[in-house]
Design goal:
This protein is an alpha/beta fold. The chain folds into six domains: about 260 residues, 3-Layer(aba) Sandwich (Rossmann fold); about 35 residues, no CATH class; about 180 residues, Ribonuclease H-like superfamily/Ribonuclease H (Nucleotidyltransferase, domain 5, 2-Layer Sandwich); about 100 residues, Taq DNA Polymerase, Chain T, domain 4 (Up-down Bundle), CATH 1.20.1060; about 140 residues, DNA polymerase, domain 1; about 80 residues, Alpha-Beta Plaits, CATH 3.30.70. About 50% of the residues lie in helices and about 10% in strands. The chain is built from 36 helices and 23 strands. Strands 3-2-1-4-5-6 form a six-stranded mixed beta sheet. Helix 4 packs antiparallel against helix 12 and helix 27 packs across helix 33. It is globular, with a radius of gyration of 32 Å.
Length: about 900
């Protein structure tokens, strides 16, 4: 009888840790103490997955140490271009080692060697007839170790499953005859990550081709004269470098490390060590997963019986399709007097102006949900929707949803006006954790530990072949939709308590949720665009770009592709030599970005022309030519999408198109606003803009008497600042002084440094230091406030706006000066910018409510930072001008007056 084979898993710790860290980089996992647990969570999750699915009999985890290895001794530049290890990973490693030890798995490391060498040694030492070795790493270099009983186990990533490579798979992947040729391949190609040079110009295709013909690196070098073209020359020229690269890429398999196979035997984890550690890290889901893996269900104590979702199934769920009148009637009776009910729409698309209802899911009890299919026939659809209209319009029922703004807009098209008694789990999560992802599937996995059914399973990946929800079978769609409603209902129960505990009630219930109704109407209303004006501008910009191009060629005395960074860099820095020490990118090209060129604009006339050329091209492609294509086919208007849960400060975002990025700094850029027109001849565009709102908030927060007096007496704040900073009477302030003072005023809000100010004003750093010091001596309370807010942030690790909106600053106490400096600047700026966002949001809600009460025909159509834009009836002009100004200026009480400038015109440019 043949005994079952042993399975030895060797984990490449640092590769897996980095992979986990960067997998969460856009949506990091931060616990309530501000600790970034992304790498710890990701690594631990991987470890649990392997233990559960693969059931290894033996395991070990190999780490690198901080001591230089033998590779650095033979090549000092080895790994020299690697960025410094992120601080979050440095903090994570000790926790990960504690977790590994608690799992009774050996941690292997040895000074002078890398984890690769330890894994290579252990793999070769213990692989035999009854033991298979799996090297778990995403690193392709381990392919050289694959052989009889040794496999490369590449973890799942970005939707791809686990990839197990044996000898056959490695040979196919590299297109080679023998495994040992992997090292030759790496020696030829090199490795930019580890700074292994290889042979310049030899990529994977060339390396494969050469190895097919000459078998080994040494044989390729010996036959370099036979190899045609530059490849042969480079191999001959860089032969020593190639041999060195091969040596660097070779994983050692003879490291002296004392470990026996029995030491690697997998035993039960030590729950007494793991439980407090997982509690500290707030790994509730992993803790429950581990407990259910290591104990039979009947042994679970009651206090640990949490709601655990497994894979894509909610255990003991009860999902019902309301496809019969009798079933629907029963549902309507059951749901009639419920205090809260969750609903979620399924539609043919995400553009609310074009999308049609496919179905609606409901839930008012966890693990229970209902799905109402909606007919493609719009008459029948509206009849079905009319039956649930009283339920969704009932003001005594809290309507729960995730991103309710979308559902509000869809239901409006079917004559349903959702009750404003709502709870939006997306907005709640945004207030509780503003910097992470608020997508329902991500929140579900992070908060509930439930991996939801991916939408790609229903309609496929984005692209020409993607289906819409109408094409999905009823059973599959019902399961998906009910899961959405069920999960959202569960999240509400958690978030409503957290909102109350964190004193965010006012922000959620009086600002963010009411605002979603305002934005829903604004988006549906849309903005009218003058296509003829844009067409004329497109022709004008073409002419300007062509004219500027000719000037550039005349100055450079040759024609070249201005849009090519490489060609432009050669003209500027090699031919014209406008900078003695030009910056270069990572690829070795000259840096020619806008920030670089702006600093050089005074050094040579060609730079100014290039910046002009780029502006004309950008205006034409990004706005003038793009806007007509973004118009809705039915009403010929542009309907943007305002993102409520995007920015960390509370500001709204705008996309498809981004109306908040319509240029304003240059005359030609401002002309685009002339294409934004009212919807008819008897309408006007009205613009209402807060004047210097952030500076006024700074004055109020700091309590600086000089700033407060300047605003109360309606002085020009920039001229006042210039007068004080440059020690001249107000009447003698010159335009250049005012410009510098303006830069300082706004720069201070963003925590500007002397270097930043010197760059912005093209002055020396010494002068910048003098200006900032002079500023703080004249406005001392501002400096006191800034220091105070940073100290408070260090203590709390978050800052707040005027309405209590929080931004968490986990790097405020970082040992890394760059990260800490960035957090300190955010500590200064967020309360100011976030409070400005709070103020305009309150103003939007108050104006919207007043307009509904007054039943005016005018509409609010845009929000652009501190500005609101309206499409108004000409007969309502005086009423709208006066009331909007009144509401905006009195929306909140500060130590300084809020001032709003109001203008009207036949287009946005004239109104502004």
């Amino acid at each position: 009888m043949v005994s079952e084979r042993n399975k030895l898993f060797l984990f490449d710790a640092m590769a897996l840790i980095y992979r986990a860290h960067f997998a969460f980089s856009k949506n990091p996992r931060i616990n309530s103490k501000g600790l970034n647990t992304s790498a710890i969570f990701g690594f631990t999750n991987t470890l649990l997955e392997v233990l559960k699915k693969e059931k290894p009999t033996h395991a070990a985890v190999a780490f690198d140490t901080r001591v230089k290895t033998f590779r650095s001794d033979i090549f000092s530049e080895y790994k020299a271009n690697r960025e410094k290890q992120p601080e979050d990973i440095q903090i994570a490693i000790p926790y990960i080692k504690q977790i590994i030890s608690a799992f009774n798995i050996p941690v292997l490391e040895k000074d002078g060697y890398e984890a690769d060498d330890i894994i290579g040694t252990i793999a070769k030492r213990f692989s035999n007839k009854n033991t298979d070795v799996y090297m778990m790493t995403p690193d392709k270099d381990f392919s050289q170790l694959v052989g009889d009983g040794i496999y490369l186990y590449k973890p799942a990533f970005m939707g791809r499953g686990v990839d197990i490579l044996g000898k056959k798979e490695v040979l196919k992947k590299f297109q080679i005859k023998e495994i040992k040729q992997v090292i030759d391949f790496l020696g030829l190609q090199g490795d930019s990550v580890d700074n292994i040079p290889g042979v310049p110009g030899v990529g994977p295709k060339t390396a494969t081709k050469l190895l097919k013909e000459y078998d080994s690196l040494e044989n390729i070098i010996n036959n370099s004269e036979k190899i045609k073209g530059s490849v042969g020359e480079k191999i001959s020229q860089f032969s020593d470098q190639a041999i060195l690269s091969k040596k660097l890429a070779t994983i050692k398999t003879d490291v002296s490390i004392s470990i026996e196979k029995n030491d690697l035997y997998v035993t039960k984890p030590n729950l007494e060590l793991i439980n407090p550690l997982f509690d500290k890290l707030e790994f509730r889901v992993l803790k429950n997963r581990l407990f259910t893996q290591t104990n039979p269900p009947q042994e679970q104590p009651k206090e640990r019986q949490l709601d655990i979702f497994e894979n894509s199934q909610i255990t003991k769920k009860n999902y019902i399709i309301l496809d019969k009148n009798s079933v629907l009637d029963k549902f309507l009776v059951e749901s009639k007097n419920k205090k809260e009910i969750c609903f979620d729409t399924e539609t043919t698309g995400l553009k609310t102006t074009e999308a049609e209802l496919v179905g609606i899911a409901f839930s008012f009890e966890k693990k229970n949900a209902y799905y109402l299919p909606i007919s493609k026939n719009q008459k029948t659809a509206k009849e079905s929707v009319s039956k649930i209209k009283p339920l969704l319009e009932n003001k005594n029922t809290t309507i729960i949803g995730h991103n309710l703004k979308f559902d509000i807009q869809i239901m409006k098209k079917y004559n349903v006006n959702i009750s404003n008694n709502t709870f939006d789990t997306m907005l709640a999560h945004y207030l509780l954790d503003p910097e992470t992802s608020h997508r329902l599937d991500v929140v579900s996995e992070n908060i509930l530990g439930h991996k939801m059914i991916p939408i790609e399973n229903l309609i496929g990946k984005k692209g020409i072949n993607q289906k819409n929800m109408r094409e999905v079978s009823l059973d599959v769609l019902a399961e998906y939709a009910c899961e959405d409603a069920d999960v959202t209902f569960r999240l509400k129960q958690i978030f409503s308590k957290s909102i109350k505990e964190n004193k965010l009630n006012k922000l959620l219930y009086e600002v963010e949720q009411p605002l979603s109704f305002v934005l829903a109407d604004m988006e549906l209303e849309g903005v009218n665009i003058d296509n003829q004006k844009l067409h004329e501008m497109s022709i004008q910009l073409d002419k300007l770009a062509l004219s500027t191009e000719k000037e550039i060629f005349k100055i450079s005395k040759e024609e070249f592709n201005i849009s090519s960074p490489k060609q432009l860099g050669i003209i500027l820095f090699e031919k014209l030599k406008i900078d003695e020490t030009p910056k270069k990118t990572k690829t070795g090209q000259y840096a020619t970005g806008e920030d670089v060129l702006l600093k050089l604009s005074t050094k040579h006339q060609i730079v100014e022309r290039i910046l002009e050329y780029r502006e004309y091209k950008k205006l034409k492609s990004t706005y003038v030519d793009a806007l007509p294509h973004l118009m809705n086919k039915k009403d010929q208007r542009v309907h943007t999408n305002y993102g409520q849960a995007v920015t960390s400060t509370g500001r709204l975002s705008s996309n498809n198109p981004n109306l908040q990025n319509i240029p304003i700094k240059t005359k030609i850029g401002r002309e685009i606003r002339a294409a934004f027109i009212p919807k008819s001849k008897n309408h006007l565009i009205l613009s209402a803009d807060y004047s210097q709102v952030e500076l006024r908030i700074m004055a109020a927060f700091s309590g600086d008497k000089e700033m407060i007096n300047a605003f109360i007496s309606n002085q020009d704040i920039h001229a006042t600042t210039a007068s004080k900073v440059f020690k001249v009477p107000l009447s003698e302030v010159e335009p250049q002084m005012r410009r510098k003072a303006k830069e300082v005023n706004f720069g201070i809000i963003y925590g500007i440094s002397p270097f930043g100010l010197s760059q912005n004003l093209s002055i020396s750093r010494v002068e910048a230091v003098e200006i900032i010091e002079s500023y703080f001596s004249e406005f001392p309370s501002v400096k006191i406030y800034m220091n105070q807010i940073i100290n408070e942030a260090r203590e709390k690790e978050y800052v707040q706006t005027i309405l209590g909106r929080r931004r968490f600053l986990r790097d405020i106490n970082s040992r890394n000066q760059t990260l800490r400096g960035y957090a300190e600047r955010n500590a200064i700026n967020t309360p100011i910018q976030g409070s400005a966002a709070d103020i305009i949001k309150l103003a939007m809600i108050n104006i919207y409510d007043w307009m509904k009460d007054e039943k005016v025909e005018s509409k609010m159509i845009m929000q652009v930072h501190d500005e609101l834009v309206f499409d108004i009836q000409t007969k309502e002009k005086e009423l709208m001008e006066n009331k909007i100004k009144e509401i905006m200026e009195n929306v909140i009480s500060l130590k300084v007056p809020l001032v709003v400038s109001v203008g009207c015109g036949k287009n946005w440019l004239k109104a502004h």
